[in-house]
Automatic annotation (TrEMBL):
Family: Belongs to the ABC transporter superfamily.
Key words of the record: ATP-binding, Nucleotide-binding, Transport
Domain of life: Bacteria
Keyword Nucleotide-binding tagged: yes
SUPFAM superfamilies documented for this protein: P-loop containing nucleoside triphosphate hydrolases
GO molecular function, one term: ATP hydrolysis activity
Start and end residues of each ABC transporter domain: 2-231
InterPro entries referenced in this protein's UniProt entry, alphabetically: AAA+_ATPase, ABC_transporter-like_ATP-bd, P-loop_NTPase
Annotated protein name in UniProt: Multidrug ABC transporter ATP-binding protein
CDD domains linked to this entry: ABC_DR_subfamily_A
Length: 304
């Protein structure tokens, strides 16, 4: 449904997005996760046609963004970060106006507005001026305007930003409802939002896509964690069954190693490193969840 290939976007000498490729199938709920400044919002703007890539291409249902942008935007509902609204307008008047801008024909406009209000639980605020609404209700208005033309794809940029805990729970429930009938892409820097509603995560770091995985794969992936007195890469790579390994030194002089392998290999690994003369301080199973993966891929940023 969505095919992004070798996307890059530069602002002068600064590269905000660097050679990013991914495919998203119809009906998926995907989280785009990364620290502020990782390139998430830039990708969102390129997907919606509001920003052209410096290099690369995006196709949505076979249509190329940039060449057939108007037809593509008819398929997309977009909630930008800090969605602009007219504070003096009432909710219903604002949505009527947005429905016109989205190309909803006059005979169907009232019905589209009523459906969006019902879906976002805005009925009791329909005649209220937007400036009187809480941040949570204003976010709902932003989501409502994205639904007016019944899009196949809904793109939400930081949908829970600035909301209180109750409003966050309400927004999560709304996103789950939207996901029943549309492909949903959520940009956020908050891991809990991805864990709560998404089936798949794309993790950005410094403009690059560093992880593309299904949530259930992250939650079931097992491995081992070792603590040694020095770098044991050569000795460990000689052991059959080790898929990959990552090592890093610590300030205490020890080396910490994460190994992607079955936990059944633990006795073999312990025997191998001890026979090779290494001091083994710890060897334990580890489960890579989203928090672990996010910390690993951003460790370079923290220490860089």
């Amino acid at each position: 449904m969505i095919k992004a290939e070798h996307l890059s976007r530069s602002y002068g000498e600064f590269t905000a997005v660097d050679d990013v490729s991914f495919h998203i199938d119809r009906g998926e709920v995907v989280g785009l996760l990364g620290h502020n400044g990782a390139g998430k919002s830039t990708i969102m703007k390129m997907l919606t046609g509001y920003l052209e890539p410096t290099q690369g291409s995006i196709h949505i249902d076979g249509l190329q963004v940039g060449l057939e942008t108007q037809a593509i935007q008819a398929k997309i509902g977009y909630l930008p970060e800090n969605c602009p609204v007219w504070p003096d307008m009432t909710v219903i008047d604002y949505l009527e106006y947005q429905a016109m801008l989205h190309g909803v024909v006059a005979p169907l406009r009232s019905r589209a507005v009523a459906a969006a209000i019902r879906c976002t639980a805005l009925r009791e605020k329909a005649t209220a001026p937007i400036q009187t609404l809480s941040r949570g209700y204003r976010q709902r208005v932003g989501v409502a305007q994205a639904l007016l033309h019944q899009p196949d794809i809904i793109i939400l940029d930081e949908p829970t930003n600035g909301l209180d805990p109750t409003q966050i729970l309400q927004m999560r429930q709304l996103i789950k409802e939207l996901a029943k009938t549309a492909t949903v892409i959520i940009s956020t820097h908050i891991m809990q939002e991805v864990q709560a509603v998404c089936e798949r995560v794309l993790i950005m770091r410094r403009g690059q896509l560093v992880v593309d995985a299904r949530m259930d794969q992250l939650q079931t992936h097992q491995g081992l964690s070792l603590c040694l007195d020095r770098d044991a890469t050569t000795a460990l790579r000689q052991i059959d069954g080790i898929a990959s390994l990552q090592q890093r030194p610590s300030n205490d002089g020890r080396w910490y190693c994460n190994i992607d392998s079955a936990t059944e290999l633990a006795p073999t690994i312990a025997n191998a490193v001890c026979q090779a003369g290494f001091q083994l301080y710890a060897l334990e199973p580890r489960k890579r969840d989203l928090e672990t993966v996010f910390a690993e891929v951003n460790r370079e940023v923290a220490h860089g």
